[in-house]
Specification:
Elements lengths: L3 H6 L10 E5 L6 H12 L2 E4 H10 L3 H10 L7 H15 L4 E4 L5 H13 L6 E6 L2 H10 E4 L5 E3 L18 E2 L6 H15 L1 H7 L4 E5 L4 H12 L1
Parallel strand pairs: 1-3, 1-4, 2-3, 4-8
Antiparallel strand pairs: 5-6, 5-7
Helix pairs in contact: 2-10, 3-4, 5-6
Bound molecules: adenosine monophosphate (AMP).
The site of adenosine monophosphate (AMP) has 19 residues, from α3 and α4.
Length: about 230
């Protein structure tokens, strides 16, 4: 496999220096796993909007309570709430590289994100679209366990932690996400098709989209993503 340093220099899709990536895909397609793996390899920030919201909810903040109403129904949090949060994040860390996972999730978010980046003289290097079938997504979601401290994803069969129920990265407790039920997956899948799938063409048009088949093990998916972006 190519080393991160070499990959950065190979230009093509990932330009020299900073990398700015977005991971797009249906729920359970592997966005969190791939974004976490790639960001550790490239030493860029992994930003999961879903994970930030889960922390807000766990911390019982006002925003957290607002978000819970939407997340508990499998709906998207309103665009203005999400984009304000991303704007703040870019204000603090924008110069650094990033792997956004789960953002943008609607066309308005995509347009606003483009504008926010432009205002700062920044642009995306690539958008990785993880394409997974409904049955594979179901298997991923039903067996998924998430670290309640750092948000790292594990799986009861496909990515077992070294110690049962304990995160390999930070020793946090692994829990099941409340929205990882079959009923909620149905809603989230429908939301993806209705509100998010349009972003595939939005990013294909300027030549940013890289499609990766994620109907495979997490290791193979990460390898495929790595090979595709370098
Ligand atoms: P995820 O962890 O990416 O699967 O997101 C979990 C939930 O957080 C989603 O089902 C949405 O309710 C909410 N969420 C995460 N990211 C966004 C976003 N960019 N826009 C709106 N809602 C989001």
């Amino acid at each position: 496999m190519t080393s991160p340093r070499k990959a950065v220099k190979t230009a093509g899709r990932i330009r020299a220096g900073v990398q700015r990536l977005v991971f797009l895909g249906p729920p359970g397609s592997g966005k969190g796993t791939a974004a976490s793996w790639i960001s550790r390899r490239l030493k860029i920030s992994h930003v999961s909007t879903g994970e930030i919201f889960r922390h807000e909810i766990a911390s019982l903040t006002r925003t957290g309570k607002l978000m819970q109403r939407f997340m508990a129904r499998g709906q998207l949090v309103p665009d203005d709430v999400v984009t304000k949060m991303v704007d703040r994040w870019l204000g603090r860390h924008g110069i650094a590289g990033f792997a956004f996972d789960g953002f943008p999730r609607t066309l308005p978010q995509g347009r606003l994100f483009r504008d926010l980046l432009r205002q700062r003289g920044l642009a995306l290097d690539a958008v990785v679209y993880l394409n997974a079938s409904r049955s594979v997504v179901e298997e991923h979601v039903l067996g998924r366990r998430v670290c309640e401290d750092c948000g790292e994803n594990f799986h009861l069969q496909n990515r077992q932690p070294r110690r049962k129920g304990i995160c390999d990265l930070c020793d946090g407790r692994l829990v099941r996400r409340p929205d990882d039920s079959l009923k909620m997956l149905q809603r989230r899948w429908a939301v993806f098709e209705e509100q998010t799938a349009g972003l595939v063409d939005f990013y294909r048009e300027p030549g940013l989209l890289i499609e990766v088949d994620s109907n495979c093990t997490p290791e193979r998916m990460c390898r495929r993503v790595w090979e595709a972006i370098t």
